[in-house]
Amino acid sequence: MGKAQMAEWAQMRVALLDPDVAALKRYEEARREKELGRLQALRCGRHADWLRQRGRGEKDRSSTTLGEYAAMILHTWKMGQRRVVSRNVMNKGLIENLPDDCCIEVLCLVGGNEVQPVRVGSPQLVAIMQTKINRQQLKGKAALTGRPEHRYDAALMDPHTAAELDPEEIVKLRDGLLAAHH
Q1: Helix or strand (DSSP H, E) at 78
Q2: Using CA atoms, how far apart are residues 58 and 56, in angstroms rounded to an integer?
Q3: Confidence at residue 168, expressed as pLDDT on a 0 to 100 scale
């Protein structure tokens, strides 16, 4: 670990241990500004715009909060607070009728030195998620077995692709994508 990383960890530690709840937010804002400067120097305009949106509190599809979850969770524990976050966890019965070994995104209660996923479920939610899980399982089988028919089946089961293309076009598209990535 370099000196810069060690300094960053030390700054985060100070913010996490500070009893002032706003200390963590000030640390995150300073860190975001530093990253903005780095991105602008590298001419990464799209990434800098995304980071600015997060700084203004604008929601985007990839995040529901500012800063890093790990720092926020540690701060919540240290201050004896409780908070609700959205996290990806293994199902393990949280949503009935879905496989236990699939990864799902659910609300989790943070507090008391633990992150506790909240059990949810509805027939509509299960129906939507199961179609996605089926495709992911087929992709996994294709990767493990090397059998191309699983890749084609997964592509053919995609509802958006099926709405735009007929089966023959989907197979051609899939072949073209594989050829482009090899």
Answers
A1: helix 69-78
A2: 6
A3: 92
Q: What is the side-by-side order of every strand in the sheet holding 83-90? A: 83-90, 103-111, 114-117
Contact assessment for residue 105 and residue 88, using Cβ atoms and an 8 Å cutoff: yes
> Which helix (H) or strand (E) segment is 125 a member of?
helix 123-145
Q: Scanning the structure block, which residue is given the tokens 């299960």?
A: 126
Q: Which of helix, strand or coil describes residue 89?
A: strand
Q: Which of 117, 118, 127 is nearest to 97 (CA)?
A: 127
Other beta carbons within 10 Å of 31: 17
Closest CA to 60 of 51, 69, 48, 71: 51
Rounded-to-integer distance, Cα 169 and Cα 156, Å: 10
Reported as a single tens digit per residue, the pLDDT across 26-65 is 887 887 777 767 666 665 555 556 556 655 554 444 444 4
Least confident stretch, 14-28, 35-49, 56-70, 133-147: 56-70
Q: What is the pTM of this model?
A: 0.45
Q: How far apart are CA 110 and CA 36, in angstroms?
A: 29
